[in-house]
Amino acid sequence: MLEKGSISSISERMQDYRVTAMVILLGPKLKHIQIQVQENVKKIMSEQLHMPFSGFGGHARVKSNRCMTKPPFIASCSLFGPEGVGLVVRVAAMTTESAYRFLQHQLAGMEPFIGVPPYC
Length: 120
Known about the structure:
Keywords: Chaperone. Belongs to the UreD family. GO terms for molecular function: nickel cation binding. InterPro entries: UreD (IPR002669). By secondary structure, this protein is of the alpha+beta class. It has a single domain (17-111), classed as Alpha-Beta Plaits, CATH 3.30.70. The chain has helices spanning 10-13, 31-49, 96-106, 111-114, and strands at residues 19-26, 73-80, 86-93. The longest helix has 19 residues, at 31-49.
């Protein structure tokens, strides 16, 4: 999306995104959470890139020239380390609320490890 025939800089293309986050999930005890986050990110981003944008918690917007508008929320993730022991999750969002909801949902499975739901 960032490279689609545009001559503007990355900072210009990302200027609408007010929130950035990076979460690292590391260790074999978090493997099931890593797998779930990867599946969720793939699903969310696939849906966003095939719609004229509703995005994560957003409302549909259609321009008259039928160009795709920026999604209000972007997430990606990558495994790292020996045998993919870690996962880094990157988030860019136009609102704090959409980033918060995403992280709250993705990290809910950590409650047994930390004793309380994250973001409660």
